[in-house]
Amino acid sequence: MKVLRKKRVFAILFILFLVLLFYNSDWLGKLLYPIRYEKDITISAQNYEVDPFLIAAIIRVETNYNPEKISKKGAIGLMQLMPDTAEWIVKKAGYAEETSKLLHRADVNIEVGAWYLNSLYNQFGSNKIATLAAYNAGPGNARKWLDNGTWDGTLKNVDQIPFGETRHYIQRVLYYYDKYVDLYKYQFPA
Fold this sequence. Notes:
By secondary structure, the chain is mainly α. It has helices at 2-23, 26-32, 38-48, 52-63, 83-93, 106-123, 128-137, 139-147, 164-184. The chain has 2 domains: 1-32; 36-184, Lysozyme (Orthogonal Bundle), CATH 1.10.530. It is built from 9 helices and no strands. Helix 3 runs parallel beside helix 6 (106-123), helix 6 (106-123) packs across helix 7 (128-137) and helix 7 (128-137) packs across helix 8. The termini are far apart.
């Protein structure tokens, strides 16, 4: 009985050792934080001069790479684009009219989402944090918070954002962004 107990303890210690050994490895990190649709993300990021890690982090937070996801509010696809916003983007960007009907396709959703991110980035003076707030809460809300002094557009003061969902969203996207930059900096072109 004592021998069996010692073997169990040894096995548990060995497993813990292996977990610690691989805890900081890129292999385990990439297993826990995969990036899917790399080619589509890379192409769209290059087309619209958007950080591919930011696109990947938004997709991870929005849908965890599930292209079939539709939110309770009706947002569609990997980047969870609202149909009205997608229609506006299609007109503004000069895409073919049927583009908005293809938002369930990963490549189309990423392309339209990257265009929108670039647009928001330009609207908010290249402020990544304000861009993320606008992506989640809408540019009207983000602009209002900045203009009336409710929020200064910094991560340091993200707790001043009136919408708890948006505060949490920004923090989650930045968490995955940092993970992706750390894990994929040499394999996923920035």
